[in-house]
Design brief:
Strand content of chain A: 15-25%
Structural class of chain A: alpha/beta
Number of strands of chain A: 8
Number of helices of chain A: 11
Bound molecules: adenosine-5'-triphosphate, magnesium ion
Strand order of the largest sheet of chain A: 3-4-2-5-1-6-7-8
Low-confidence stretches of chain A: none
Mean pLDDT of chain A: 94
Shape of chain A: globular
Order of helices and strands of chain A: EHEHHEEHHEHEHEHEHHH
Oligomer: homodimer
Largest interface: A-B, 33 and 33 residues
Distance between the termini of chain A: 10 Å
Amino acid sequence: TRMMIAIINNKGGTGKTTTCVNLAVGLAGRGHRVLVVDLDSQASASLALGVQDDALSPSICRALFDGTPVKDVIRSGIQPGVDLITAEMNLSNADLLLAKAAGRERRLNDLLAPVRDAYDYILCDCASALSLVPINALVAADCCLACLTPEHLAHEGLRMLARAIARLRINMGIDVQWLGILFTMVNPRLRHSSSVMAKVREDFGRNVLTTEIRRDVKLAEAPFFGRSIFHHAPASKGAKWYGNLVDEVIERCRNI
Amino acid sequence: TRMMIAIINNKGGTGKTTTCVNLAVGLAGRGHRVLVVDLDSQASASLALGVQDDALSPSICRALFDGTPVKDVIRSGIQPGVDLITAEMNLSNADLLLAKAAGRERRLNDLLAPVRDAYDYILCDCASALSLVPINALVAADCCLACLTPEHLAHEGLRMLARAIARLRINMGIDVQWLGILFTMVNPRLRHSSSVMAKVREDFGRNVLTTEIRRDVKLAEAPFFGRSIFHHAPASKGAKWYGNLVDEVIERCRNI
Ligand SMILES: Nc1ncnc2c1ncn2[C@@H]1O[C@H](COP(=O)(O)OP(=O)(O)OP(=O)(O)O)[C@@H](O)[C@H]1O
Ligand SMILES: Nc1ncnc2c1ncn2[C@@H]1O[C@H](COP(=O)(O)OP(=O)(O)OP(=O)(O)O)[C@@H](O)[C@H]1O
Ligand SMILES: [Mg+2]
Ligand SMILES: [Mg+2]
């Protein structure tokens, strides 16, 4: 399989970065070659993978804005089997800096083209928005994984997201598929989370992953150590659930 | 006191809307006249205050984009003592729609000028970004309240936010003060939250509020019922903490 996955949700704080980091390390742990592309100006994925906050440059910005070839900004082996292109603050100016550029929604796609075959999985950690950079990720990606915390309005937010993606498919002629919808930070004691999840399952059918990631404080601790959950707390529930995610993602990617 | 408060953080999911809704209802419960201005295209504050998702129009968009006077979009008594200007999806186009408008950062300020004296507190619920609409909120507001979840990188994110506000003060000649920094969704079992909070307190001194809002599932449930915590679960810890916040905000606003 060779698959580029955009990890998305326009709602903030829904476990996208946590999923990106742990899925990447988990896939590499199964022997796959993985590239993480950090597309959030906050650089949370880069920092969670152990990069120091004064070492984020050179980042994806050099390639997107200055024309540096992408291979010159790839950092090899940030974790075993995981390469990384970092993000940095300047990425938040993308909409302005690329406003006049021709083919500005295809920039990332064109940049990554020469290196795509070097990886089994390319994971893009997106910011919580539907601006030019996340659009670039959806144009470049083969499939998208939406991270959803089953709280009030999560279902409505997902439907808006799905509609926005459908419009993009038409406007940009892209063919990004659903890898699926992943429930994250599930709190079983939140009375309504099961009814939110049931409504989403009813609406999106088999696009909803079987794996559910529940709250586990270990998942919130791991970034402090610049480690994945598999390294930080291999015996934890969080590690078990993200292990299940790795299996399910591998399986689903075979059938996309 | 007469105070307009922008509730901010460029990081997503840090309890801004939960704080806006509960602070608004809490202040009204002390006899103050309160206006909530929903400035997030996701309209979470409007929905959490009981507005149906097919009844979000007319919203702040009519005033910002179409020149409708703001008094025509104010909904009175959405909760006792609380008026509301809703948001809607179209607000996410603000940067594009107002790109060429003169004085585009002062639009909200100018719109709210005629109604400012009718309220003791005006609370603006901002999206997690530093784009044109949140900038409008900071230009219009007397003070800002940053909501911070003490997780990895929260301190770094806050320093970036503080620098961005400092630049705005210089560039826009505004004088927005710190109401303060509020710790939200504090999870005492997260090993590092106390060290993150200690670093923030050391850095920001008395700008950090004494009140801490910890995790309480009741706070996540209340939006499902379109109610504040004071109505949904008046005996809960969440209600007690937000009650403390109301007291502390009233006190601090006297001294700004
Ligand atoms: N299953 C979980 N259990 C406990 N904490 C979690 C879990 N998943 C994520 N977190 C924590 O919740 C916070 C938000 O998660 P994360 O940063 O992954 O979300 P995000 O969607 O990438 O946010 P943003 O929209 O800001 O990019 C982080 O502090 C993270 O460590
Ligand atoms: N103290 C708390 N305890 C438990 N759940 C909370 C608490 N505060 C907020 N929540 C829940 O966490 C989620 C995120 O909170 P909220 O929507 O207030 O954040 P936000 O900063 O406004 O997010 P956004 O960046 O998307 O606007 C919501 O489901 C909310 O109900
Ligand atoms: Mg993230
Ligand atoms: Mg909000």
